[in-house]
Every structure is written in structure tokens, then in C-alpha cells.
Amino acid sequence: MDYFTQRPGETAREYAQRYLLYQIINLNFEPGQKISDMEISKELNISRTPVREAILSLTNGQLIESYPQRGIFVSLINSEIVEQVCTMRRMIEGPLAEMSCGLISQSNLDNLYDTITLQKDYASGGPRENFEKFLSLDIAFHKEFYDICSMSFIYDTMQNVMPHFDRQRKLSYHIAISDRVISEHLAICKALENRDAKEAGKAMVEHISTALVDQNILKKKFPDYFL
Prior knowledge:
mainly alpha
């Protein structure tokens, strides 16, 4: 897989950080799990120094915790950080949905509806691989609004905090959110089609807010994963 092969021009530290992020976001390294810089360096066939540098970077991002004499651990999913990321997304994507009503082209609208159609193919009840494809399409749906409004810098900046949100989103495979997400996406698109900026913004904010409802369910189902 691409995530386990060093890319041309990629430094060893960048490679190690990309690998660690992939494993953490996809819950291959579970919240609270102890990890070893030595084992990771052997896995990637690089020295321990760039692995330690990557671990330090992710420690600063609150995805990894390091304790003297105890070791290195994947951070638990911090509920407060997830809530803050949701707040950021509501503050940004709500207005973006409103702005999109005055900027959206038929091609943009077609892209959004096409994404929803594909999501239906991977909706609830299928294997884990289907859910992964569903989530990729969910990301594409939301990115379309940043593209419509020419806000790529803000989108790229948001990716620095999204891993906290993404871990919860990956875990939501266990509570069958797909049909609800499709319904919410359709409501957003309907408002866009009607050029109803207020309703588009409202639908987007409500859609993002459901992640907090999901969080309460997931905390009961996976109490050892959350802080």
C-alpha cells in the first residue's frame, strides 16, 4: 500500500509521520495502545531518529502521549477536542454552504448529487471496505464547498485538526450512520438547488452537529477509547 512505502522526495520523518497518522486515524493503533519507536523503525526500515521526531510532532498535536519510564501511547479520543473541531466546522462550513448558493454552478451541483448517488452504493450493512469508501465520498462532498468558494487554504489548514474528528468518524462504522448522512446531504443539496442560503447553512450546521450525538453513543459502546 502507498502508506507503507516511502514516496520519492519524502523525508524519513515525513514518511514515519504519515505512517503513524494512517495507523492512528484508521484505528489500527487503537486509542490507549502502547507503541514502540523501535518496532516502527524496523517496520519502515528507517532509523529511530525520524520516528522519534514524528512521534514528537504527533505528541504536540495531542494524538500521541509519551511518559518517561512508561512508554509511548496512542492518545485516547479527546471528546472536548472533537467538540471543538465540530464547532470550527460549523463556523466555517455553515457560511460556506450559504455562500455556495450564490456561486454554485450546475456542474458543482451535479458533483454533489453524483457523490450522494455513489454513497448510496456503499451505505449501511456492507463490509468495512464499503464504509471506508463511504467516508471518502463524505470527505469529497464537504470539500466541494471549499472548492466552490475558493477556500482551499482554509481546507488545507483544517486538515491539521481533522485526525481527532476522523478517529471518531472511523469508529462510527459500528453505529450505522450512512443512511442518516445521505438524508442530510440531500437536504443540503435541495437547499442549494433552491438557492435558499439560509436553509443551506442551517442544514449544514445541523448535519455537522450530529457528530456530537454519535459521540455520546460511541462513548457508551467504546468507553475505553474516549477521554
